[in-house]
Amino acid sequence: xxxxxxxxxxxxxxxxxxxxxxxxxxxxxxxxxxxxxxxxxxxxxxxxxxxxxxxxxxxxxxxxxxxxxxxxxxxxxxxxxxxxxxxxxxxxxxxxxxxxxxxxxxxxxxxxxxxxxxxxxxxxxxxxxxxxxxxxxxxxxxxxxxxxxxxxxxxxxxxxxxxxxxxxxxxxxxxxxxxxxxxxxxxxxxxxxxxxxxxxxxxxxxxxxxxxxxxxxxxxxxxxxxxxxxxxxxxxxxxxxxxxxxxxxxxxxxxxxxxxxxxxxxxxxxxxxxxxxxxxxxxxxxxxxxxxxxxxxxxxxxxxxxxxxxxxxxxxxxxxxxxxxxxxxxxxxxxxxxxxxxxxxxxxxxxxxxxxxxxxxxxxxxxxxxxxxxxxxxxxxxxxxxxxxxxxxxxxxxxxxxxxxxxxxxxxxxxx
Length: 416
What we know:
The chain is mainly alpha-helical. 82% of the residues lie in helices and 0% in strands. Helix 11 (221-250) packs antiparallel against helix 12.
């Protein structure tokens, strides 16, 4: 655990710079004159959704690392994520530079998606189930505090100097590279047994593909139900950050620092505060029961944002940011560990790969759909776009009710 905490502390600086909300603010405020508002806003949707979108590569990475030394793979992917920051820092303020920034952002998050997928198997092997969430929670608290501080400092310095990120990002990249070097020395408990089981689960050593995905979703009914509900529920959560960046800028005239505070820094600080509370609950119950309770924190947060946008009560944006962080705290635990309540040891990476791949799909579609809806409403009447936040709110409410139904249905089946 000390090595996990230490390496992740350094990596958190790099990931704080790669946060979708922060990079979205850079695109919206620094590259605004590069193209038409529709182009800029769609780019904001891409970079804000990149942390989730990048998960589309998780199954490919899981297949490439199948039967291999996972700590070394994680270290290499950490290094790639850190190096992507240099491209963002060097991107010139014109159309080609906007493309370079977007490509580097997505590339960095692609690498990090691989880290999350492979690291899940490492945590499963190294940390027992009854304390796994609490240990993960400690790592997450450290990670969130440093990410929040990094994003906040970059946002604040950009209020004084537009190009402050061009200095901050190379420094963050150096921290990420140091984290990668530290992680190479991480040990995996019972590594030989786990590698043998992985190789036995796919005798031909072929990378994990669509057939394996469909096989699990066809045979594991409860995991399929969980994934379908997460797709609807998570789509609402994933489109809100891009919409907030645009609405706070265009409709309410927030400055760079305040935009970063609402979309990135305050939520991450609340992740650090609330993660230990959610971790204690997570260790005691099944993921469906956990989601049936936790999902309402997202409903509350998105409800506050929608109300703030429609009524113009700016204070509700700040309250919404705090509530969103509390929701993210519990959501990260469920996202990183929830699949373990369905998977065997040998299939843990594959189950996680399915989860993050579907997250990547909604990470691509949801922010673009939300921004397209915003632009459509604005084309009908300027100012009408602020009502778009009702859309992610409705998706989240629907998912929350479905989790309650699934949890009750599962308990009834067990009791019979």
